[in-house]
Amino acid sequence: MNKFILVGKNIEEIEKFMVDNNQSKYRARQIFNWLYLKSADSYDKMTDLPVSTRELLKEKTLINSIFIKDKQISKDGTIKFLFELSDGNYAEAVLMRFDNRANLTACISTQVGCPMGCLFCATAKLGFVRNLNTEEIIQQIFLIQSDTGLKVTNIVYMGQGEPLLNFDNLMSSIKIFRECFQIGARRITVSTCGIIPGIEKLAELNFQSTLAISLHAADNEKRKQIMPVSKKYSFDNLIETLKKYTNMTSRRVTIEYVLMKDINDSTQDAKNLAYAIAKLKCNVNLIIYNQNEKSDYKKPLRENVLKFKYILEASGKKVTIRLERGSDIDAACGQLSAKMKNV
Ligand code: SF4
Fold first, then answer.
1. Three-class SS state of 99
2. pLDDT confidence bin for 101, thresholds 50/70/90
3. Closest Cα partner for 177 from 208, 152, 206, 147?
4. Which CATH architecture best describes the domain 4-62?
5. Is 114 in the pocket of ligand 1 (CB under 6 A)?
6. What is the per-residue pLDDT across 42-70, written as a single tens digit (0 to 9) for each?
7. Does the beta carbon of 106 lie inside 6 Å of ligand 1?
């Protein structure tokens, strides 16, 4: 018998399950609160449910269908989770604290592997296996919370996979994070490598979370060399689509730019980028490439990073340099490769 998976369901779905099983409808709200507000990972923690209801739940439901297989903790406190899915595949998520405040950001995955083939990315080396379903996306946050006892305040869809190629599950998971986990739209960021039809769909839906674009180059020729997506959706079309997006949603986008030594970190690259995004309502997030022995790409010189930032700021853009997190456990940007520790 296929069991009913609880985490990932909304209140109406849980109510329907309870009524179908001759239970009082109001019990659904209790279960909902245990799952989404208290991250209860066992039925026995749901102490305000009668024993008979808990027995029914044990028989006919599963709280979650994915499980924590491995966990690594970085020197800086970043935690990388490896999840085992019900078909034996793996997915990863990362929990980061960026400052001393209570903000906790989780970076989650939307696909097993990724089909986009960005040359600097560890996930790309896995190839594409499959999309994660809504429940598998939601359960990453549920398990992080139940394992750590902490409340995730911000979610970034920047883990493995291209979120806009898993559009329906992306949107239904955002709905559940907002309605059930009570995470506000502005605390959610979706990152894409530039899937133009997906960006157009978000614009039509008046998307109110943050859209981040992994641009990583300032012209089409250079971008094609490191991001094959640019062969299909050109740099210029992408920038034009983003301008329309910002007009339709009245939301600024974030331009993500990974600086790699002698690839895209020159003064000319910075000038080209400033020119290309001059009329785009955006902030820029510069990311220092996480050099590792498995990759030919190198970390940029610090002076080049500062020069790059200065040129963009002089053009009127707000620019931040993203703090490196979890690089010692391969949890930093572009390092997720869903491997077991020591493998
Ligand atoms: S950078 Fe993102 S889109 Fe590109 S291959 Fe890696 S996971 Fe996929």
1. coil
2. low
3. 152
4. Orthogonal Bundle (1.10)
5. yes
6. 999 999 999 999 999 999 999 999 999 99
7. no
Question: What's the pTM?
Answer: 0.93
Closest CA to 295 of 80, 125, 128, 127: 125
* 67-329 carries CATH number 3.80.30.20: no
Query: Token pair 């180059």 is at which residue?
Result: 217
121 is catalytic: no
Nearest Cα to Cα of residue 176 among 131, 137, 148, 206 = 137
Best residue among 94, 116, 195 to mutate for probing ligand 1's pocket (most ligand atoms within 8 Å of CB) is 116
With a 6 A CB cut-off, is 123 part of the ligand 1 pocket? yes
Catalytic residue among 15, 92, 162, 256: 92
Query: What is the atom index within ligand 1 of the atom nearest the CA of 161?
Result: 7
Q: Which of 114, 193, 282, 333 is catalytic?
A: 333
Tokens at 260, concatenated: 């790699």
Separation between Cα atoms, residue 7 and residue 284, nearest integer Å: 35
Q: How far apart are CA 161 and CA 288, in angstroms?
A: 20
Express each pLDDT in 293-328 by its tens digit: 778 899 999 999 999 999 999 999 999 998 777 767
State in Å: Cα 109 to ligand 1 middle. Answer: 11
In the reported structure, the alpha carbon of residue 127 is separated from the centroid of ligand 1 by a whole-number distance in angstroms of: 10
User: Residue 92 catalytic?
Assistant: yes
Give ranges for CATH 1.10.150.530 in the chain.
4-62
